[in-house]
Amino acid sequence: MMARRGFLAGLAALAGGLIFARPGYTAAVDAPAKPDSVKPIKLSADEWKERLTSKQYRILREEGTERAGTSELNAEKRDGDYLCAGCGLVLFDSKWKYDSRTGWPSFYDVYSDHIGTKVDKKLFYERTEYHCARCGGHQGHVFDDGPDPTGLRYCNNGLALEFRPRSG
Ligand SMILES: [Zn+2]
What we know:
3 helices; three-stranded antiparallel beta sheet; Metal Binding Protein, Guanine Nucleotide Exchange Factor, Chain A; single chain; binds zinc ion; 168 residues; alpha+beta; six-stranded antiparallel beta sheet; 9 strands
């Protein structure tokens, strides 16, 4: 009896850890999650390589940057949510998206509890890097030349996002 309960609890724990968005897969993602639901997840490099394309891996796990103008999300104008392509956590609402003319999907606001930031000194000037609060996946950089009302520009790699249109 005890052994069986342990087995089932193990299964439940396993299932709880398996809510990942594979490319093209958005069924099990959360509705806009409350901050307390953001529990960090950790996977090995090999596990990430199984779940992501090589280009997504380069961006999300190695802080790469896609070439400007290459994301189909630049032209996306429908209502919906933009989710982390690594784990499905919702990061942006389409109402915050605007055309920054930079060639990368850009937003003037973010679900701030769903990202973390750090100073990035890779270039000759400092930038503020931001990443998914749940899986740590690199998303982009935030700048202070955005439009009202925030004045911020979240410059995001399209490959690090998945768009989920709102139905109805
Ligand atoms: Zn994530």
